[in-house]
Amino acid sequence: MADPLSTIAATLRDAFASVTGLAADTIDPVVRPSDRADAQANGALALAKQVGRSPRELAEAAVATGLLDGACSLVEVAGPGFINLTFTPQFLAEQLVEAATLPNLGVRAATREIVVVDYSAPNVAKEMHVGHLRTTVIGDALVRMLEFVGHTVVRENHIGDWGTPFGMLIEHMVDLGGVDADLTIDLSDPSAFYRQARAKFDASEEFKDRARRRVTLLQSRTDAPTMLIWQKLVDKSADYFDVVYGKLGVLLRRDDIVGESYYQPMMPAMLERLDQAGLLAESEGAKVVWVPGFTNREGEPLPLIVQARTGGFNYATSDITCVLDRVERLHATLLVYCIGTPQSQHLQMVFKAAEMLGVLVPPARAVHVNNGNVLGDDRKILKSRSGEPAMLLDLVDAAIERGRAIVAERSPELPADEQARLADSIGIGSLKYAELSSDRIKDYVFDWDRMLAFDGNTAPYLQYAHARICSIFRRAGVERASVRQVVPVIGEPQERALALQLLQFDSAVHDTLDKFSPHRLCTYLFDLAQAFTAFYEACPVLKEGHEATRDSRLALCDLTARTLEQGLALLGIDAPERM
């Protein structure tokens, strides 16, 4: 594996096994990058009590085995039993060549699981707004990374396509001409139809009564005209979603839609299972599950309502049914929910209810990947000029337009078709990266100037770093693949720093997935680009008089470009070869 930390950890495992008599597969030394050396290992502290020896004595005994000598030029025991490690240039060079020739640039494959990622989740007949940006982009990046390390990933777009609002929407459609009407949802404002229906619902008791009767017909699924109109609404909205996802460059497609309507027929059976398990109770006429550990503001037990007193189902009913379906039909062992922070308590109660039902039990588990808000300059939810939450398609189009302006100014010599592709790459890349580089649990302020800048932790900075490396090979007239077997010479401090950074790609990807936090990968890529800049300024690559180091440094350049390109691809961002 092309990860020096993992390689050293495996070597230390053998060293500790040899001095303790324990089986190597029961030992798990932790090796991390360190400011004091290339890495620091902590294994002796955990083993000391187990074998009845002091941690420092155990660390010194492991070092004395000599197993680390081939990889390290200096090994020191520090403090109570930490081991500081300095790698040899030869060891780093070997690891770099391995990374350059291995699939996935040496990123380890995970133990394969079936993973369901629930993300985006817009509503039918409503426009996607800025609130959908975070869940859509974060979810898409996680999908790409999970697939990259070998998981089988099921994308699910759990859209709102059922429930009481559809009574008024369908009835409004009937007023416009019924099944034969040509329902047109303007892609610039698909919420207009919804607003028209809502206005009629609020103003007319007669329309309100018709809408309520229509809900009953919809829920019965037996009235053909009602179902046809409902399907038309869903299809038109799916057309709009496809436009947004296509422009934004995310993986979600129509086939990934699994709306609330899909789960509706399964809900009575789910309630029956809750009842048979002794989990269903009544509270003020509603059917509820009492989930331990949750209370209201008065400190009283908080019920999870799964059927209203009117007999209707709600989000909890749907979400518990989702868990059952994903675990039992899809055989998923990891459920990832990319949903805003306000839903945290609701999801925790749903997960606990599914656990009490005996469904969400190891190895199956669920994770809420929550996120904060996108704010304007006033530090309130980003708004459009009308005062409504900013619409997602408007932001996407604005990003592309700003990308065009940048390309027109910086790269007017490029052919028109290449300029158009580059504008998309810069604009959409900037929009996504501004989102992904922010800690997802925190709010962040939306700032076009900052996200489109060519310096700092931005997409254009990383994209330009990649393009600059590509230009080195064009100037040299060298095919990049030709240097991938070259064993780099790690002599200068900047070469060493770049090598160490390159070899942390594996750790960066797995750390990002362990914490479901894409900003960790963004930070790694920014650090890598900075390490390359320092290397390129201090270590001439093509300059006359440096022919002896030319191929070695070109090999470092190529691996850097490939790592930047792959890292950006995992975020759903293009890495242009010319800018």
What's the structural blueprint in terms of helices and strands?
Elements: H1 4-20, E1 30-33, E2 39-42, H2 44-51, H3 55-64, E3 72-78, E4 82-87, H4 89-101, E5 114-118, H5 131-148, E6 152-156, H6 165-175, H7 192-203, H8 205-220, H9 224-248, H10 260-263, H11 267-276, E7 280-283, E8 286-295, E9 301-307, H12 315-328, E10 334-338, H13 344-356, E11 365-369, E12 374-375, H14 392-410, H15 416-436, E13 444-445, H16 448-451, H17 459-476, H18 493-502, H19 505-515, H20 519-538, H21 550-570
Parallel strand pairs: 5-6, 5-10, 10-11, 12-13
Antiparallel strand pairs: 1-2, 2-4, 3-4, 7-8, 8-9
What do you see in this structure?
With 579 residues, the protein is α/β, with parallel strands linked by helices. Among the domains are: 4-87, Gyrase A, domain 2; 165-250, no CATH class. It is built from 21 helices and 13 strands. The chain has helices spanning 4-20, 44-51, 55-64, 89-101, 131-148, 165-175, 192-203, 205-220, 224-248, 260-263, 267-276, 315-328, 344-356, 392-410, 416-436, 448-451, 459-476, 493-502, 505-515, 519-538, 550-570, and strands at 30-33, 39-42, 72-78, 82-87, 114-118, 152-156, 280-283, 286-295, 301-307, 334-338, 365-369, 374-375, 444-445. It has a four-stranded antiparallel sheet. Helix 5 links the parallel strand 5 (114-118) and strand 6. The chain is flat.
